[in-house]
Amino acid sequence: MLTVAMLILAVLAISSSAILVRWAAIPAVSLAFWRTAGGAIALAPAAHRSSSRLARSDRRSIAIAGIALGVHFAAWMASLTLTSVASSVTLVSTAPIMIASFQIASGKKPSKTTLFSIGLAALGTAILAVTDARIGGTIAVIESDGGGIGAPSTLGRRPQLGNALALVGAAAIAVYLSIGDRLRQRLSTAAYAGRTYAIAAIVMAPIALAFGRPVIAPSTGAWLAILAMILGPQLVGHTSLNYLLGRLGSLTVSLSLLAEPIGASLLVLLFLGERPTPGAWFGAPIILAGVALQLVAGSSRRTGGPQ
Question: Containing H/E element for 138?
Answer without folding.
Answer: strand 138-142
